[in-house]
Please model this.
Amino acid sequence: MKKILVVGVGAIGGIVAAKLAANAYVVGLDSNTAHARHISEHGLEIEGATRLRAHFPCVSEAVELVDEPFDAVVFLVKSSATAQVLGTLGRQLAHKPLLVTLQNGMGNVEQLLATGAPVAHGATMNAGRYVAPGRIEHLVRGTTWMGPVQGRLEDMQWFGDLLSGSGLPCEVIADVMDAVWSKFVFNCVMNPVGALVGGQNAARYQVSEVCDLIDALAGECQQVVRALGGNFAFEPMAFVHKVRAGAVPMTRHAGSMALDIARGADTEIDALTGWVVAQAERLGIPVPACRTVTALVKGLEYTARGRAPAARENSE
Model:
């Protein structure tokens, strides 16, 4: 049986860990002490699109991990926490396990590559939210894509098969970046707008001015990605267009940034829309919508930290 360490068992990490626990030996690592303790003592309950209770050990600090080799380490913490977490995992990374990142934003892969271990980069269209210690809501089912950045495709196919066999459909492909870019643009647009409208998802679809902002952001982000040599596996805003057309129902989920702001946590704006702004500046591409939205989210972060400073957590 494969041994998997899931770093960050918040929304998506919790769903991944709970699903994998049926077919692998899973250990969770999460900075939310109450969440980690509840999982170890009572299990992790997944509700919504998936309904199950999974039991696996979970710790809040890497020093609590036993000295045993893992076959894979899955990173699902906030992008800003990647470097700090990597610095605590020396023993677990010594034998070069497969490192998998399904994190939002750019910059995570480069940090994992520095370990010298095989690295798989991926993107998932699943969506979820942290509800309370030991409880995660699975909001949206979706496909996951992953592929090698360091190492061979055949050396990581097993992990994709394990995800698929555990109920999380996964495609392992040689060049995953087109899928990553598609999900990246979607997150750069919809996540910050969700935060700016206070987590009210209807505002992203029913207020014409907000729809115009979304379209402007999407155009700027896609222009920057193409200027960087990127392409898209699928139209990044396809889901948004389907919701607008009434082809698929609108969910209650307004994105992880809205949830971060609500609990006083820092967002991933610098690894998403802020990253686009930085690249656009380097390339000489005007991105006024991205620049304004990034500044507004940073203002929201400042206000939220003052309102709920004790609620900050790293889990995604």
Notes: The longest helix spans residues 177-196. The chain has two domains: 3-174, 178-310. Residues 3-174 form a domain with the Rossmann fold fold (CATH 3.40.50.720).
